Amino acid sequence: xxxxxxxxxxxxxxxxxxxxCDSNGDGIGDLPGILSKLDYVRDLGVNVIWLSPVYRSPNxxxxxxxxxxxxxxxxxxxxxxxxxxxxxxxxxxxxxxxxLVVNHTSDEHPWFIESRASxxxxxxxxxxxxxxxxxxxxxxxxxxxxGSAWEWDETxxxxxxxxxxxxxxxxxxxxxxxxxxVFDMMTWWCEKGIDGFRMDVISMISxxxxxxxxxxxxxxxxxxxxxxxxxxxxxxxxxxxxxxNRRVLSRYDxxxxxxxxxxxxEEARRYANADGTELSMVFQFEHVGLDASPADKWSTARVPxxxxxxxxxxxxxGLEGQAWNSLFFCNHDQPRVxxxxxxxxxxxxxxxxxxxxMMQGTPYVYQGEELGMTNCPFGPIGNYRDLExxxxxxxxxEAGLREPEELLEAIAFKARDNARTPxxxxxxPNAGFTSGTxxxxxxxxxxxxxxxxxxxxxxxxxxxxxxxxxxxxxxxWKDAVVYNRFxxxxxxxxxxxxxxRPGETPLLVVCNMTPEARLYRxxxxxxxxxxxxxxxxxxxxxxxxxxxxxxxQAAVWAVVx
Length: 561
Ligand code: TEU
Ligand code: CA
What we know:
This protein is α/β, with parallel strands linked by helices.
């Protein structure tokens, strides 16, 4: 069996503070708002909170552009508010994992202000400056948020690299003083008693010296920085993470998860290796990339179930015994999974959750996923707030690469703002999120889709998530759920996602991933024996050679003899 660890037995709840709960009526979520909802989070049964960035920021990218790592964003409150939140979380047995964004800072960070001041500035090499070529940027890389990844700086007449917005200049991790400053800051937060870090695009921190052009696919204006040979999984990334582990992480009892854009199985075995010399686990993005086109994510393509199942199975078996998986379908960058891979219904939300949570790895619940919150009908581009979507719409339509209406349809399906609409607490105005004007529109389905209504409904998505999480965290089957292995059943079946969790007490998981009733004949791999139904979102099902599954019905059995 895998070596035990508390972070393997955890379930993490991701909070996007800007959209979680507003305590002072300015329409923006804040730390006191989170504090007021800690009992709700605890009652979900999770034991870890991942906080998206709360540090001082001009909010060009909603806090992923940090101007002071040791101060709290003005809109979110004060450091005293943070200390109160951390203490209150710990009182409830909740650990807090911070979002560490150190591939880049804000261009308003003092480090960058000093670096850009002069070519001979002491901090010049803290960022990535290059001469242009014939009056053009050093290569064809594009920012993830449109435009070139190189910004011309008139003061010193050089370009600086920004893989994201031009207000997010990339730090130069080859500079030892950068590593010293980052590790000092991390230690400062660990000394405050936080319980870990989610590390933003940590696979991008080591850049190749040569920075070659990236391939241009049809429909692209720039090469992708994240393409192989770009900035992901660079030459020193594992060296720098081992140094971070030696100098900081190994000194505390932390959950560390790398957001490793572009990670492969081979690389993940190194980032999340079982001997703990780097990180506890990583987020991989292959499954949420299956519906992208070669050019970009702006597609309404549906993912064929066999492709999704095989990819999830690849990571389950590919890391087994060597590294630890994280399990997610939702986060603040992804559209709502119940709309993306389901039909938006509560039953689909429960079915998708069962398919995800019964695999091996640490599950992540994104705020609102436990309610079955859906994508939001934003309508015109003016209702969006995320620079990724707004810039893409402008760039791709102005270049004549996409038709506005067709592109807007794809943006409606895939935009990150779908995950960033205010948490739906109850049916009062603005879903109880704010007494003011919310910074982004509230999903109009909040009067019926909200936490208060689901607290009162034993068959709600919320109550189902509580049972699902209890099964992993508290039940007599918890070791089987966490530590059993994984075997995919019927990989080619286009409707049913079924898998075994072989171990001392094998588990069987069967999910009808369609809105139609279906019969499923159990394959021979399923061990014979008495089976105990542990959980289902539909009518009780006894395990027989053929199962009659209702639409979106999922079920979990333990094969006890
Ligand atoms: O995301 C990195 C990243 O790869 C995503 O931007 C992803 O490419 C895109 O969102 C998919 O549509 C991290 C943070 O999670 C994201 O919110 C930040 O915008 C980004 O880094 C820059 O910090
Ligand atoms: Ca507020």
